[in-house]
Design goal:
27% of the residues lie in helices and 34% in strands. It is α+β, with helices and mostly antiparallel strands. Strand 8 (204-209) and strand 9 form a beta hairpin. Adenosine-5'-diphosphate binds next to strand 6.
């Protein structure tokens, strides 16, 4: 069913995901979108910080109540990643790619971070908060030093000014389209699109966990549970956690 979105616009917020959580307590539900010009405590996975400078990005969270099982919820991060990559492609013409588990990259650099959180309460449908941060108008010097080497923005990639509203609208429309696809055709359909948009599909990767290389092989796709499928010399492996990097031309691994 088509999602009808309600946009809640803020100038400054601590984190759009935290605000979404507060709005859920106040009775807001499916289709509520929290958009902010800046976040003072934007967050990434594992408690990492997400840099959200004022007016330079598309910082938003979407509340969803998907008609799928709790088990399928973890597959939703791929629905979101695919939607972001497609929305960016449609509005900017840039080749954006997904990277396991849930980054969106352009030319190997991170243009978007995604943080999915579940809200489960008694007698309530399971709610999902999809936090999405897309770098739009930053130039390199606008990023903190530790992020510069791995980040990019739509403006840096296109060399043009970015219409943030158009990108937001396209991503929301793709979230709608891919949610419907997930509900009607199941994860297999999402998995196929994700694999086609993955920058590592068919390429040699290295998986590092807690600073240690756990395996090297060819990334081939996604398993049913969302783990990354890697073909190694010893057969197929499923990666549940870790950082994946692509083998570079010099034989090393790019971050
Ligand atoms: P990952 O899964 O890549 O560790 P997250 O998606 O959780 O990362 O995002 C947090 C990390 O992303 C931070 O540790 C920081 O290195 C980097 N980062 C923070 N802000 C930005 C930004 N605006 N653009 C790109 N990368 C960022």
């Amino acid at each position: 069913m088509t999602i009808s979105y309600t946009i809640q616009q803020y100038d400054t917020i601590d984190s759009t995901n935290l605000e979404a959580r507060r709005l859920i307590q106040q009775g807001f539900g499916h289709g509520t979108v929290v958009v902010a010009e800046t976040q003072t405590a934007g967050k990434g996975r594992l408690g990492r910080a997400w840099e959200s400078a004022k007016g330079s990005g598309i910082w938003f969270s979407v509340i969803l109540e998907p008609a799928i099982s709790l088990q399928q919820m973890s597959q939703y991060s791929f629905v979101i990643a695919v939607a972001v990559a497609e929305g960016i492609r449609q509005t900017t013409g840039l080749e954006s790619w997904v990277k396991w588990p849930n980054d969106v990259l352009i030319r190997g650099k991170k243009v978007c971070g995604i943080l999915l959180e579940l809200v489960t309460e008694r007698n309530q449908p399971v709610r999902l908060i999809a936090g999405i941060g897309i770098n739009a108008s930053q130039q390199m010097a606008d990023f903190p030093e530790d992020v510069q080497a791995k980040a990019t923005s739509l403006a840096m990639e296109t060399g043009c000014e970015i219409n943030r509203q158009a990108v937001l609208d396209a991503v929301l429309q793709q979230i709608d389209a891919n949610s419907t696809r997930m509900e009607q055709e199941g994860f297999a359909a999402i998995r196929d699109v994700w694999t086609a948009l993955s920058c590592v599909t068919g390429k040699e990767v290295q998986v590092v966990r807690q600073g240690e290389t756990v395996l090297c092989g060819i990334a081939v796709g996604l398993a049913e549970d969302g783990s990354l499928l890697v073909e190694t010399a010893n057969g197929g492996e499923q990666i549940m956690a870790g950082d994946v990097s692509l083998r570079a031309a010099d034989g090393g691994y790019a971050p």
